[in-house]
Amino acid sequence: MKNDFLKKVQGHLIVSCQALAGEPLHSSFIMSRMARAAKQAGSVAIRCNSIVDIQAIQDETHLPIIGLNKVDYDDSPVYITPTMKEMRAVASTGAEVVACDVTGQKRPHDEKLADIVDQMRQEFPDTLLMADTATIENVQEAEQLGFDVIGTTMHGYTPDTDGMNVADNDFQYLKEVLAATSKPVIAEGKVDTPEKASRCIELGCHAVVVGGAITRPLEIAGKFIKAVNNTVKA
Ligand SMILES: CC(=O)N[C@H](C=O)[C@@H](O)[C@H](O)[C@H](O)COP(=O)(O)O
């Protein structure tokens, strides 16, 4: 039986707490405190990257987790939980959901997504699988492969969708995703204001993930600095 993550997050905000190596807040301790702040504010779940961050955030918050493991391989552009090895490691933390790339691009070692899904179902039958998609074709593939939840995470981050934004034209792309699938949709990627997050729920998303606009101070401060520096004094 699958876990009750979907019931817990329905209609709610999920905060993504991530800082890669090279980012100012790269630290499992700091991410666990970010997650504590998110929980205090009312976040019902946390999305996070890497085994150590997942464990630190579980210990700190006891909230349901969408876990992923970003790893770069030389032979593939896919980096969000790209192979069975990372899928297994994330699921082994007890994360309720494992998220992985579903962009139709070649995976490392030519692993096939269908094989990964089959293997995950055998080894972790109560773990949900979230598809981080970029296009409607990806959404259809995810549904066909039996993913439990569809994310818009990669829209704007693949060669086909470079520069696109899920919020453009009052979330036109998100509306198309919702029309293309009967699976629960989690809006994710560049949702950077409370109004946009609210609109995702209004349009019919199951939940919405917000990351950088809450947990990446470099990004947040940069917006303020740019606005102030571009201001001409009256
Ligand atoms: C494309 C990619 O690698 N996205 C990652 C996926 O987990 C994260 O870096 C994002 O922060 C996350 O998707 C939330 O999005 P935003 O930070 O824009 O609210």
UniProtKB/TrEMBL annotation:
UniProt GO BP: carbohydrate metabolic process; N-acetylmannosamine catabolic process; N-acetylneuraminate catabolic process
Enzyme Commission number(s) from the entry: 5.1.3.9
Keyword Isomerase found: yes
Cellular component terms per the entry's GO annotation: cytosol
Pathway connected to this protein: Amino-sugar metabolism; N-acetylneuraminate degradation; D-fructose 6-phosphate from N-acetylneuraminate: step 3/5
Top EC group: isomerase
Protein name, per record: Putative N-acetylmannosamine-6-phosphate 2-epimerase
Name of the gene: nanE
